[in-house]
Amino acid sequence: MKLKLFTFLISALFMIPVGVFAHGTEEEHQREMLTATLLNYSFIVSSILLGLGIILFFLIRNQLKTVNVKKQEGRLKRDKLQRWLKLSRWVSVLALLALAVSGVFALTNGTGEEEDIDFMHIHGLGFTNDGTEIYVPAHDGLKVYKNGKWKIPEGEKHDYMGFSMVDNGFYSSGHPAPGSSMKNPLGVVKSTDMGKTLQTLDLYGEVDFHGIGVGYYSHAIYVLTPEPNSRMDDAGLYYSLDETKTWTKSDMKGLEGQPSAITVHPEKENIVVISTNRGVYLSKDYGNSFNNILEGTPVTSVSFTKEGKLLAGGMTDKPSLMEINLESGEKKNIPIPTLSEDDAIGYIAVNPNNEKQIVFTTFEKDIYLTDNFGEKWIQIAKQGKGMNSQTTTNE
């Protein structure tokens, strides 16, 4: 009976229907998080059970040597101990099997080789300050594209959300990697060594911000919070100019529609842009008032260049990419590869050392890169799989 119960528990550990726990607008994301968490816990539980099983086996075997089988009482005790010995063997075998299965899943979660780069989700995009590397935060940690190849950098594989690259690293929020000692959620964190280590700034263990924008050089931090927390009395837009020591709530007058992305001017901490399903909203007074500078166009992504020009990924009859000069109001279309009718631009980044080099991701987890302002694009990821550079012809 005990053996059957144990077998059932081990089997159930790998057969839990994760989907029943997920709900809401981020069902897929939560399902993948739960899957990773369950695999991590199964690895830990299996390791503990294997250790207990081995210890139990040797303790029982040693105790059997001391049993006097000449007496009826001793023989009954021997039979009982032998049943426990058999159970300890099965515990060890099943725990070892479970450990092997969870270990295989963990090892296949990306080995650093190009063909193994997968993106469960994409939560941001950015160039390093020298312009040589592109960082892509995914559900299972950072991925880096450099010289035509993908790699996995050092550091824990945190589930970064609201990822914002700056001149000396990045700011982010999200959830810690399976097995990490960090609290969940991360609150607002910062890294100056590209994810090798994280500095916790605020709301650690309390909030997971999906909407974060940080000035590339100013490091002015803007966050969209969906509900109150210990530092913010109401839902809405807040900003900090002192590394989260203080927060100020913005009035957000004139902003309409459902926010989809947020970006902050690289140098001018007072300028913030939020895109919605009704256009692109620009504020020059710390988010207190907004004006729609691309009215009538649903916009899925926005990003500033080093010089302060704005790139916007929009959706009219098809996905599009546009550069907007905030000083003159001039708008310039940038040719992009043909995307499927259900796809759209998710994130955009511009090389700080080369305005003509642009990279963008899509909802379907494709990633495209151009070195010449859209004249020619190469595809560096397809449906969540990192790939060799392949030329894509604009249509």
TrEMBL record:
Coiled coil: none annotated. The keyword Transmembrane applies. InterPro entries: Glycosyl_F510_1955-like, WD40/YVTN_repeat-like_dom_sf. It comes from the Bacteria. The chain crosses the membrane at residues 38-60, 87-107. The keyword tRNA-binding does not apply. Keywords: Membrane, Transmembrane, Transmembrane helix. This is Glycosyl hydrolase.
